[in-house]
């Protein structure tokens, strides 16, 4: 067990969480440098090696926490090995590739197990948690904007958009969108606002030049929510005016600096695909088609329902129909597709039920900091379900499971404190 009565033990774990939030984008930047600048490709990337080491540390911490964790971790690993044994009977299995992909999911799952238990034992102040998460938003947005200014990095879609030197476009979008609500909370309620205003501008600019539909729609919807519903208490109208002025400045800068480029690249790309496809296919960026292709393979063998199709076989099947795609890119469906119902379903049920509870609490809660965390959770889950690369990505997944673990324990604690939660007087 973690002995939380010993102050140095608690502080060390807090520091570990803080460090993990800080180095997560750096690991992906390192991957980008290796692939885009050094032009090196290997089965196992430097990021995977670093995260494998972190996974070992997290696994050890999980095992030390409780005997229940040992049972859960053992069951997951045994199920994975059983899957590989089933495949090896009839197919040539690339165990290295399977393990390399599986570590992405195991990293997030084991981190979720550890943090969920840790937050159950120790109540962490929301603002400290927010500050650690915003480190990720600052590093990601700063990297995108700086690489754009310096003219380095790669486009989001070929020559369209810009994602800096990050590998996964949707993961970067998810990190920034999950950070937007808590940044806006800080702008409205923090006394020292300038850092958070600059951070918001950097993240907003990054989302615009990334050019994803989820990023731009999320930025507009979340910002509108905070301007209309998020400002409460003393100096409400002054804060409203300041927020409107901030938005006006942002829109003016966008129009002057990037509007022409945006209309001739990203918007033109959207218009092309909108005219070529039906509305569901356009909104889901073809993921409905990928899901249909994957389902044909998944249902072809009865044991696929239990152990999935495996990453290598599953990605090769999708890629044989649509070149350059190896996943459905809808995390919950990808989990079932690659690893079967028994492994995927408990996680899916837990995340879905927690998101539903958070949606209700968003309406009922009077605490704006808690509302902001609920919004970040709902956004992370929505992007994970519709756009993928959250649960299956160590970059976005690190921040998402941290929010999930904290929110889960927040709701558990508040279950018997209804008066505190609903009393807005």
TrEMBL record:
<keyword id="KW-0436">Ligase</keyword>
<feature type="transmembrane region" description="Helical">
    <location>
        <begin position="336"/>
        <end position="356"/>
    </location>
</feature>
<dbReference type="Pfam" id="PF13425">
    <property type="entry name" value="O-antigen_lig"/>
</dbReference>
<feature type="transmembrane region" description="Helical">
    <location>
        <begin position="368"/>
        <end position="386"/>
    </location>
</feature>
<feature type="transmembrane region" description="Helical">
    <location>
        <begin position="237"/>
        <end position="258"/>
    </location>
</feature>
<feature type="transmembrane region" description="Helical">
    <location>
        <begin position="16"/>
        <end position="37"/>
    </location>
</feature>
<feature type="transmembrane region" description="Helical">
    <location>
        <begin position="165"/>
        <end position="185"/>
    </location>
</feature>
<dbReference type="InterPro" id="IPR049504">
    <property type="entry name" value="O-antigen_lig"/>
</dbReference>
<feature type="transmembrane region" description="Helical">
    <location>
        <begin position="131"/>
        <end position="153"/>
    </location>
</feature>
<protein>
    <submittedName>
        <fullName>O-antigen ligase family protein</fullName>
    </submittedName>
</protein>
<feature type="transmembrane region" description="Helical">
    <location>
        <begin position="279"/>
        <end position="298"/>
    </location>
</feature>
<feature type="transmembrane region" description="Helical">
    <location>
        <begin position="99"/>
        <end position="119"/>
    </location>
</feature>
<feature type="transmembrane region" description="Helical">
    <location>
        <begin position="197"/>
        <end position="225"/>
    </location>
</feature>
<keyword id="KW-1133">Transmembrane helix</keyword>
<keyword id="KW-0812">Transmembrane</keyword>
<feature type="transmembrane region" description="Helical">
    <location>
        <begin position="70"/>
        <end position="87"/>
    </location>
</feature>
<keyword id="KW-0472">Membrane</keyword>
<feature type="transmembrane region" description="Helical">
    <location>
        <begin position="43"/>
        <end position="63"/>
    </location>
</feature>
<dbReference type="GO" id="GO:0016874">
    <property type="term" value="F:ligase activity"/>
</dbReference>
